[in-house]
Q: What sequence folds into this?
């Protein structure tokens, strides 16, 4: 496997990336992961069958060559039936070269809403949503190569009995409404957390922002006069269920989203969601059933739907329960689906 997720080689992981890959390892003889990284990371043995190798490159320009070198070294020790890459770009290019050198099968993942490039010679493609699949098919990619399987979710972590938000918590703000609005994810440009901050100026409820990233300083400056907005930083994945349980509404204001795993986690927790109408959000949200979809970039529409759910707790509860049922039905066995796909490709 070739990845860009540095949480596999010692960086503070975002979400449950380590746990997911350990789970994959339970179904295979061996899973070695090459992680594109700068200097300073270490080889990590995640389990008896799963090990991650950082490229420790001096510059991004060297990612390809360093990953290819490590891949060749790994193939000298073991033959790998399948090469899995996280995207069609650098990781995909390394995977394609290793496929040609060692005659393995190649699976390319579309974890983002990427342009259709670099997939012609892949044996298979995994996408997160039907919208991504349609995009690939319309670009001339053989539909039989493509399978829609979203990122696995540890649903059991989120569907335990929930306790209501404390009535005397910081969620009660002077002159207004009690409630907690939650965002979880990277603080990066494509997530457009600034849209939530703009909407938050119209909402007298506690808004908690969980995550870290390159936009953090800019976002904190935008929110400096908003006493109802809290930045909690990056939170360990085992602490997230508690945050979801305490929230009344979950919000994902992204400009682009290939899936939106956090929406499914929030729904599994019995919470209604409000999201911009990205490819990924449309895969999870049935508008008006388990949440609301609003136009990308529309702060007023975002605020209006959040306020509706805060003002109508019975309706919010109903939509949250609808979401829980939907997520259990659609996403509870995705690890098995991924492993079965790997087997199908090899066969």
A:
């Amino acid at each position: 496997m070739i990845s860009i997720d540095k949480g596999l080689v010692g960086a503070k992981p975002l979400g449950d990336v380590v746990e997911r890959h350990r789970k994959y390892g339970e179904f295979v003889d061996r899973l070695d992961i090459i992680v594109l990284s700068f200097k300073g990371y270490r080889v990590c043995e995640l389990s008896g069958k799963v090990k991650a190798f950082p490229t420790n490159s001096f510059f991004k320009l060297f990612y390809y060559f360093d990953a290819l070198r490590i891949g060749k070294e790994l193939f000298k020790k073991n033959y790998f039936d399948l090469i899995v890459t996280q995207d069609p770009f650098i990781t995909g290019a390394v995977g394609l070269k290793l496929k040609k050198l060692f005659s393995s099968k190649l699976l390319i993942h579309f974890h983002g809403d990427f342009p259709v490039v670099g997939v012609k010679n892949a044996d298979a493609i995994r996408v997160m949503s039907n919208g991504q699949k349609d995009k690939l098919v319309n670009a001339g990619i053989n539909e039989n190569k493509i399978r829609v399987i979203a990122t696995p979710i540890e649903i059991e972590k989120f569907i335990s009995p929930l306790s209501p938000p404390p009535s005397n918590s910081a969620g009660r703000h002077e002159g207004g409404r009690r409630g907690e609005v939650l965002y979880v994810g990277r603080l990066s440009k494509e997530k457009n957390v600034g849209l939530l901050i703009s909407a938050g100026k119209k909402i007298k409820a506690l808004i908690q922002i969980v995550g870290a990233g390159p936009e953090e300083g800019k976002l904190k400056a935008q929110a400096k006069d908003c006493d109802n907005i809290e930045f909690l930083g990056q939170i360990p994945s085992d602490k997230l269920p508690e945050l979801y349980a305490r929230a009344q509404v979950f919000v994902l204001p992204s400009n682009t989203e290939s899936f939106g795993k956090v929406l499914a986690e929030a729904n599994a927790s019995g919470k209604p969601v409000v999201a911009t109408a990205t490819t990924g959000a449309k895969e999870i949200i049935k508008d008006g059933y388990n949440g609301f979809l609003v136009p990308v970039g529309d702060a007023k529409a975002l605020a209006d739907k959040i306020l509706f759910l805060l003002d109508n707790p019975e309706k919010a509860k109903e939509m949250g329960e609808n979401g829980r049922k939907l997520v259990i039905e659609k996403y509870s066995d995705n690890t098995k689906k991924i492993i079965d796909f790997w087997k199908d490709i090899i066969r």
Observations:
- The domain at 155-331 is CATH 3.40.50.2000 (Rossmann fold).
